[in-house]
Amino acid sequence: MKKYRITKYNPFLRDKQGRYALSEWTSYADIGKLYNGEVFEPNEYICVENKYIQVLMMILKDKSIDTLVVKDLEKYFSIAEAVKLLNDSDLSLSKKEEELFETVRNENIISISQVDEMTKLLLRECLWCKLRTQENNLFIQVGYDFYLYIYCENIPRKIISDVSMFQMYIEEMDI
Prior knowledge:
Oligomer: single chain
């Protein structure tokens, strides 16, 4: 099994220690702040968030995965608190996202059709968990600073090159 890091951060802009060299937003909570002389807007956040979901769905489709199991679930807020925090950044949750937040439990099986909502909840820091296949051959985890990690067998080179065309990057990491 290999570990992959999926990010919006161009790997060519890292220093020798692997630190990213540019000052960039790392969370929805950064909406409204200045980065490189421009205000970080909600629509930019949503655009990048959708790219993460698109990359994840490409990988899941390639691997013919149609369900994932929720593991090590942590909820930090009530739904009301999560909605308020997101509203403070001019973001919101859809009814489906709110419903998933309220009903998801450890060991639940989520369908591929729920991956979009679950990924948004994870990237928006409403909750944290690992997602894995029932066969334990793929794991997904969201980390700090808008990093998404996938542990699996090879991600095809075509996917890795295709995602770079829309400014997303998949890097193989040491485990």
